[in-house]
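Researcher: Structure prediction, please.
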Amino acid sequence: MKLSEIETITGRVEDGAWVRSIPDLPGLALKVRGADCTAAHLLRRKLLMEMPEEARRNLSDAESERIALEVMIHVLLVDWNITEDGPADADGKPEQVPVPCTPVYARAALTDPKTLLLREAVSWASRYVALLGEASLEIDGKKSVTS
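Model: Predicted structure follows.
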């Protein structure tokens, strides 16, 4: 293996890359950082250190889930290709309007029981970004979003 290949993989993990072919969600693409990236470790540590020592020693499932969600929102999930129906076009067909990948939208989407599959997708993609990550997202053969 070339050193440059290792650098590329490390870049995907640390800076993020687009992941497609996500199980159960065809058409979804997520730009994510690797689950073990430096920023994720730092945020986990920061959130743990903000807790009382006793709570850290006996971390509840709820606290563990809260920390995982914060890391997912603020570090792992960088961007997505999610849209919603907008105003109708001349043919009466709704225009697809991009949903911005902000912490507010991400929190809403990742905590809504109706979109729980998205949370699982972000988790899956963050584990596979080193192997499957792409520098840009192409739609209909045209580069539309870059990292």
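Model: DSSP finds six helices and seven strands in the chain.
Researcher: Thanks, that helps.
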